Every structure is written in C-alpha cells, then in structure tokens.
Amino acid sequence: MALSCPLQCVRRTTEHVASVANHVTISKKGIEALVSSRLSEESVRGLDLRKWDETDHLVETDQQGHHHPDVRAQYMLVVDAVNFCFWPDDELEYEHIAGNLKASVSENPSCISSESLATLTPLGLRALLKWPRPLPQEEERARLVREVGIELGRSFGGQAANLVRAANQSAAELVRLVVAHFPGFRDSCVYGGSQVFLYKRAQIFVGDLYGSFRGEGLGKFRDIANLTMFADYRVPVTLLELGVLEYGKELSGAVAAKEVLEPGCPQEVEIRACTVRAVEMILEEMRRTFKDASLVPMSIELDWFLWKEGEKRRDVSDPHHRVLTIFY
Ligand SMILES: Nc1nc2c(c(CN[C@H]3C=C[C@H](O)[C@@H]3O)cn2[C@@H]2O[C@H](COP(=O)(O)O)[C@@H](O)[C@H]2O)c(=O)[nH]1
C-alpha cells in the first residue's frame, strides 16, 4: 500500500510515535504474557472474537421490521459523526447514542434524511438522541451532523449508501473518502513536527458497516483487515490493566486525578498512538505463536473484544484519560 493509503499512514505514524514516546511505553513482556494467558490460542478458540455486538444497533433483525440498507448506512454515519467524548456527562455512554438514535429512526426513518441532518439544531439533536439534558459539546455535535447532511446532499445524492458504494468495496478508499469530504472526521495531529494519523471515527464507521451488515452488501470490503483498532479512550485503560501499556509517573498522576489534557498534547498523542501500536504488536505475537493462523483475529475484532472488556469494567476500572475532543 502506498503512503497515500490512509490506513498505512495510521500504522506508520503511530509506530513512529510509539518508538520515541516518553510518557507511555508498550511492554513486550506484557504482550507475551497476555498472548500466553487471556489471549492464548486456547483462550481465543473459546472466544467469539468475530462477533460484532448488534444489541443497540439498527440491524435487519430489528424487531420493528426490516430497515432499508440505505437507511442503515445513513444511521451508522450519523452515529459515528457524534461517536466521541461522552465522559463529561456521567451517564452518557455509547449505547445511548446508538440505541436512542435507533429508536428515533424506527419511529421515523426520514429523521436522518440529508435534508433533516443539514438543518439539525442542538435541540433537534438532543431530541434525536432522546437525551433529557444538554449533550456535552451539543452545539459542536449538531454542527458536525449538519456538515454530514450538507455534504451528503452536495456530493452523494443525500445518501451515505452512495458514499459507501463510491468506495468500491475498499475499506481504505472509504476512509479516504470520509476524511476527504467531512472535515469533522479528519482525526490527525502534529507530534514532534510531524503529522500523526488516527482517523478513529472514519475507521469505526467502516468497521461498524462491516459488523452490522455482517461483511455483505454495504458491509463488504476486500481489505477490511487493513483497518487498525479505533483509538478511543476506553481501550487504553484495558491495555493498562492487562499490563500491555505503562504510563510514566507524571501521566499516571494526571489521569488518576481526572485532569483534562490539552487536545494534541504529547501525552494524548502517545496514549492513542501506543494503543494502536500495542494492538498491532499483540496480533504480531499471536501470528508468531499460534499454530492455527485462522484463530488470529483482525485488528478490528481484537478492538471489539478489548473495548467490550473495558465497557464491562468501566465502573470499577481506573479513570481513563480525559481530553475535550471531537475525534474520539
Ligand atoms: N475502540 C473502540 N472504541 C469504541 C467502540 C465503540 C462502539 N462500538 C461497538 C458497538 C458495536 C460493536 O460491538 C462495537 O464493539 C465506541 N467506542 C468509543 O469508546 C469510547 C468510550 O465510550 P463509553 O465507554 O460509552 O464512554 C468513546 O470514545 C467511543 O467513541 C469500539 O467498538 N471500539
């Protein structure tokens, strides 16, 4: 893949940050221990790592009857347009965004037409997500949804499904199209004078299409395995608990104290880049040690597992790092 490939850009730039990071380290010993215990070949055999959790999502088994695939693609793009920074509201979680929007779409699919999205107000977004009080960054979230509606109308006949079809079943191409057309998805920063790419919401949009369409139709991508994990704020906590990531003393203190870090600060970039790199190193260790190569998951499948582990423990785990961001 040429460096013009957005996924190659994510892998190479995060690997570079991990190699020079000084607030965060990746423990090779921790990875070896993990891949001979919780994620050993035997353990993985018993896990259903390929399973995408569709509970809160608008998928065809939806009791309210089948939704048109185009509506489901539109729904997923709206979910991932606002899939970031829930922590300022103690009760707001991802499942509220996905589940409540699903309810709104089941009541009235036209609520996510590009015309509706293009003129969505903060109060309109609150109603769409059925949230009883102002959402964190509510004005900005509504702006990001309007950006999607306007650009879908301008370039894709109002349909996210047309954006997906324009990628011709390439995950990398769809990520490239999403970041080209929607500035809100351009999740990159500058570290030590060089640009670092994470593209978390663009990648998770593709991963969610793949999961919700079970790899068929609008979820069919020949290069889905090239997606990286999604650099959020939940998986780093799981990797810390598993002994894979280690934070320096100063960063540990700041995170434990729930200090809000500046977007783009070295600590934030190192946490996110080392999280991406650590997942790739876990997969490399699996490929190195597993006899049955078919048991080695894709980056996004390992991501789903680690994220769900983190969600299960979110009320007992140490605090995650806090950044007031629009990217994750
Ligand atoms: N790395 C990764 N981060 C993910 C997801 C998801 C949802 N996907 C699941 C849905 C169906 C499938 O089963 C997928 O597993 C949300 N997030 C991020 O977590 C963060 C915390 O959120 P909370 O704890 O609620 O506050 C927030 O940045 C949010 O953007 C994922 O899969 N991977």
Automatic annotation (TrEMBL):
The lineage's top-level taxon is Eukaryota
Mind listing the UniProt keywords for this protein, alphabetically?
Answer: Hydrolase
Protein name (Swiss-Prot/TrEMBL):
Queuosine 5'-phosphate N-glycosylase/hydrolase
Family assignment?
Answer: Belongs to the QNG1 protein family.
Q: Which reaction does it catalyse?
A: queuosine 5'-phosphate + H2O = queuine + D-ribose 5-phosphate
Q: Which InterPro entries match?
A: Q_salvage
Biological processes annotated in GO: tRNA modification
The UniProt record lists the keyword Hydrolase: yes
Q: What class of enzyme is it?
A: hydrolase
Recorded coiled-coil stretches = none
Q: What is its EC number?
A: 3.2.2.-
Molecular function via GO: hydrolase activity
Q: What does this protein do?
A: Catalyzes the hydrolysis of queuosine 5'-phosphate, releasing the nucleobase queuine (q). Is required for salvage of queuine from exogenous queuosine (Q) that is imported and then converted to queuosine 5'-phosphate intracellularly.
Q: Which PANTHER family match?
A: QUEUOSINE 5'-PHOSPHATE N-GLYCOSYLASE_HYDROLASE (PTHR21314:SF0), QUEUOSINE 5'-PHOSPHATE N-GLYCOSYLASE_HYDROLASE-RELATED (PTHR21314)
